[in-house]
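Check out one such.
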Amino acid sequence: QVQLVESGGGLVQPGGSLRLSCAASGSISRIDDMGWYRQAPGNQRELVSSITRVGTTNYADSVKGRFTIARDNAKNTVYLQMNSLKPEDTAVYYCNAAIVRAPLRYSTSYWGQGTQVTVSS
């Protein structure tokens, strides 16, 4: 019943920007950590950025200074603002959230369906 729906991916030129969104829905009591991962062909899935419920952020070295993660707890949504995009950023981006679903008292990890980001001239 709980699901994460991603949006905002697409094709952009190097140096361009995209903003990804991921909204959780369903019977949710609380969402703890949220984050964005990406996976390029032939590569392992890697953590891009994460954010705690109170707003503490973490970024992979490869995206520091270019990407910004944010969340809106009232909307159960996490965002990833991606600026100065490079071809190396091309990947499928997945959101992840630790969600306590009603009426339970512990969190479970959920994944979005993935959204393609392609950076190319």
Summary: The radius of gyration is 14 Å. The first strand starts at residue 3 and ends at 7. The chain has a mean pLDDT of 97.
